[in-house]
């Protein structure tokens, strides 16, 4: 499983010592930690969000993890906060490229 620096910060804030875990334990710990995410707190599931936004979000979040379930949880948290998060992200990235 790929873990990036963002995941390491989350693990540290949750007091999870990932150096002592195998991949399955790390994924399980992250999933438990993700239970504290905005989507879970607000009882938002994949049925409650735009499916195209969610699919895009899962692909985008795979930059941070190879685990599809974790990518989906991250995407759902973003979509719970801003329903068109990934549309806005794409637009922002495109505008940034124009300025380069």
Task: Give an account of the 3D structure.
By secondary structure, the protein is mainly alpha-helical. It has one domain (5-16, 26-99). Helix content is 65%, strand content 0%. The protein has six helices and no strands. Helix 2 packs parallel to helix 5 (68-81) and helix 4 (51-61) packs across helix 5. The longest helix has 15 residues, at 85-99. It is globular and about 45 Å long.
The backbone outline, from C-alpha atoms, is: globular
Number of distinct beta strands: 0
Helix count equals 6
Measured as a percent range, the helix fraction is: 55-70%
What does the radius of gyration come to?
14 Å
- What's the average pLDDT? 80
Tell me the series of helices and strands, N- to C-terminal: HHHHHH
- Tell me the number of structural domains: 1
- How far apart the termini lie comes to 33 Å
User: Stretches where pLDDT falls below 50 for ≥5 residues?
Assistant: 1-16
